[in-house]
Design the sequence.
């Protein structure tokens, strides 16, 4: 079965620090990969996505992610975090069969201190 | 803006009760989903529907059923609530754009 692993459950950073959140998936075929974010008190929303082509994808609010096929990874990065980036981040993969059936990782809670 | 509305933000029920969670979307989306969100487990797909009266099981359908009589409404039913169904339930909808789901604000269900 497909699965998504997020290595860090809780991350605490100071403002201006760099961020990298790990995500690995277990599926040997073609994948579509996503990062979703849930800010406190808000809905889950799409941060960025990878379908094909350039393995470095850019999303909203200065986030980017790199797809490394050989490592089955799709890590999320941001060079300099802000207090407003405090949120829970979920990596997700589309399984085969269509209909947008996303498989999510367990999530990483990021706390950014001023 | 797409709006996905879940009828209750907080719900407290007793073991054995039949529970209905309602979800309505206002953008004529084909696909609708029910997930549950638990700390340390992320989101797990319970059921989804790709058209009116059409449904498919997700990863954890046991103890749940769904109903989609109208395109805009997707209901999750707990036939006989149990304490292990205490969770945050999230509804989502999507059109055809792969991976872009619109989520509701969730229903925190407590089963006592």
Sequence:
């Amino acid at each position: 079965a497909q699965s998504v692993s997020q290595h860090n459950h809780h991350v605490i950073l100071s403002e201006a620090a760099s961020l990298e959140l790990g995500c690995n998936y277990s599926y040997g075929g073609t994948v579509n990969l996503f990062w979703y974010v849930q800010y406190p008190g808000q809905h889950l929303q799409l941060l960025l996505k990878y379908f094909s082509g350039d393995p470095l994808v850019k999303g909203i609010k200065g986030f980017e992610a790199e797809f490394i096929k050989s490592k089955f990874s799709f890590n999320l990065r941001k060079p300099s975090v802000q207090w407003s980036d405090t949120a829970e981040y979920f990596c997700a993969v589309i399984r085969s069969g269509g209909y947008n059936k996303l498989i999510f990782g367990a999530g990483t809670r990021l706390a950014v201190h001023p | 803006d797409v709006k996905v509305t879940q009828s209750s933000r907080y719900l407290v029920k007793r073991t054995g009760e039949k529970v209905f969670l309602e979800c309505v979307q206002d953008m004529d989306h084909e696909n609708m989903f029910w997930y549950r969100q638990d700390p340390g487990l992320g989101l797990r797909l319970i059921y989804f529907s790709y058209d009116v009266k059409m449904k498919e099981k997700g990863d954890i359908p046991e103890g749940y059923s769904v109903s989609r009589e109208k395109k805009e409404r997707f209901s999750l039913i707990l036939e006989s609530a149990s304490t292990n169904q205490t969770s945050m339930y999230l509804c989502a909808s999507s059109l055809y754009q792969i991976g872009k789901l619109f989520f509701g604000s969730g229903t925190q269900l407590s089963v006592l």
Observations:
- DSSP finds no helices and twelve strands in chain A.
- The radius of gyration of chain A is 14 Å.
